[in-house]
Amino acid sequence: MTPIPAPAPGFATIDFETTGFYAEGTDRAIEVSVVHSDPDGTITGQWETLVNPGRDLGRQDIHGITAREILSAPQFAGIAGDLIDLLTGRVIVAHNASFDLRFLDAELGRAGYWGSAPWVSVCTMRLARTYLGSGTTLADCCAAFDIELGGAHRAAVDARATAELFAAYIGSTGQASWQQLLGSVEMLAPHAGERHDWLPRADVAAYTPSFLERIIDRVPDVSDTHEQAEYLALVERCLLDRYLSEHEKDALVGLAERAGLGRATVERLHRDYLSALVTVAWADGVPTEEERADLYAVAHLLEVPVSVVDDALARPVEVTAPTMGSFALSAGDVVVLTGEMLRPRSEWEERLREHGIVPKPAVTKAARLVIAADPDSLSGKARKARDYGIPIVGETWLADRYA
Predict the structure, then answer these.
(1) Which end of the chain, C or N, has fewer beta carbons within 10 A?
(2) What order do you get walking across the sheet with 91-94 strand by strand?
(3) Active-site residues: which are they?
(4) Could you count the other beta carbons within 10 Å of the beta carbon of residue 187?
(5) Whether the Cβ atoms of residue 58 and residue 17 lie closer than 8 Å to each other
(6) Each residue of 7-35: b (16+ CB within 10 Å) or e?
(7) Percent over 70 (pLDDT), the chain
(8) Residue 185 main-chain phi, psi, to 5 deg
(9) What is the per-residue pLDDT across 53-65, written as a single tens digit (0 to 9) for each?
(10) 265 contacts 400 by C-beta, under 8 angstroms
(11) What is the pTM assigned to this prediction?
């Protein structure tokens, strides 16, 4: 994190990305950015971090933050101390300030901080009536001053654009117009809680070691065991939606380590699983293009060379009985949906009922499948499903079968 300068008169522009709009209830901040400006509006620094809310992420199609990115982010209590240091002695600026200040107060309250001084703030959305005569959205206001706003609904982008917008307001009236407001700001009491490293969205590693790379070579190989069968069963559950979430990768690594499966054995098991899928693909005489594409996708996820698929498809398989069945829901099966999906959950539930499948609101051991807006969801339902060993798939799995 960029060092925080000593307190000085000026402005601190803030922006929050959140799971929703109910700051005092169940919604949480998931990203925050602060921009410092001098009294004349000159920007002098910017800080940002993702925030782990400990719940699902709400409208991910709006803010674009995924659970994978959030996994390593600090909770709000871990950034509260630095955030207070960034705000102390400064006028708070925000676009729709009442929204951001409600989340700021709510999150600081949950972190055990109660400010010793009231916020002194200005709202660039309200100021638009004075300076622009119309326009309420940040995009509209920025367009009026030709301020770039690329990638809206990212805290860093919105905070920077808001700070530039406010600088344009200052330029329209002169610095002297804001002196009285700057002089009314009090210093905030420091926060004594723990301080964790901030994690900007841009710093989330695009690459994480594959789960095969995380399986230790030195573990002695074992063969033909119940543990291998359990591992393959977990592989099949994890690949139901042809996507390996970070939680699923961790589960595969953990099971391999507990069962004493070395990398060579795991690689062989992956090939065995792929061979079983090839056998299924040959069941009707000729693998279709869709089946071929599916085999290549599985090979990629399991880190099996595609040449293995090519070789297997080049040799017709005499099918006796499939060694591994494909997963399908049956009438009477219980499923649970979690997260805010692209299609309303009520519509999906109605569609499932038409097929005799039973949607339930809570995860119990009776559930056969959990369908999540994000397979890496941090929701309570997703955590309970992992505790029970219930597979979690994404909305695309549902759309492919029941749309």
Answers:
(1) C
(2) 43-50, 29-37, 11-18, 91-94, 121-123
(3) 153
(4) 11
(5) no
(6) eeebbbbbbbbbbeeebeeebbbbbbbbb
(7) 92
(8) -80, 135
(9) 999 998 888 888 9
(10) no
(11) 0.77
